[in-house]
Amino acid sequence: MNKFSETLTKDNSVLALIDHQTGLLVSCRDLDPHLMTENIKGLANLAKAVNLPTVVTASMPEGPNGPIMPEITNILGNEIIEREGEINAWKSLEFKRAIEATGRKKIIMAGIVTDVCLMFPAISAVAEGYDVYAVVDASGTWNSTVTQAAMHRMTQAGVKVATWSSVLAEMMDDWRSDHGTELGGILAQHTTYRWVYNSYLTAANQK
Predict the structure, then answer these.
(1) How many domains does the chain have?
(2) Is residue 163 a part of any domain in this protein?
(3) Minimal CA–CA distance to 47: which of 135, 152, 159?
């Protein structure tokens, strides 16, 4: 089994969150802002729950792009790679070395905006042999047309387009796994899956 057919686990993956900065969020019109924020928080909580290595980067946060959104730092802490000018985060040696230092070839990647902050490093990483999962619902951009164009270009380059809930389910693998109940709770916290999860808890408590 090669890295492209191998499924995601907490032991073979790294999360990269790129440029989720307060000043850039105004550009995100393809998703409801509240929904997108919940998706980003869900992805961050997933990483924290399974102790997934995480690399967070920001582009010139002292300028109009602003700092990383507090919804991320409140969950994952304030360790952020601040880039001085590289639009494509993969061209930042510090960012790339942080990914390489994990020794993992699967990158779960999200970014603001989808067609730049996510698409460019996703394609660049694939070109160097990484297996990239582009989490498009924890990313955002101007409108749905731009999203579709970015998704097409990424898939043409070999990037796997994904959603945060599918990443969570793939990593959970089995409700009986060590993190099964906790991950189900994260999904319930950030989506309408909460009703299914509540039913599951009720049934489990009746056994």
Answers:
(1) 1
(2) yes
(3) 135
pLDDT score of 38: 97
Residue of 76, 80, 117, 154 with catalytic role: 117
Q: What is the CA radius of gyration of the chain?
A: 17
Does position 156 have pLDDT exceeding 90, yes or no?
Answer: yes
pLDDT of 2 over the 90 cut? no
| Res 97 pLDDT > 80 | yes
**Per-residue pLDDT at 8 exceeds 70:** yes
- In CATH, what number is assigned to the domain containing residue 129? 3.40.50.850
Q: Is residue 117 annotated as a catalytic residue, yes or no?
A: yes
Dihedral, CA atoms, 38, 79, 86, 103, nearest 10 degrees? -90
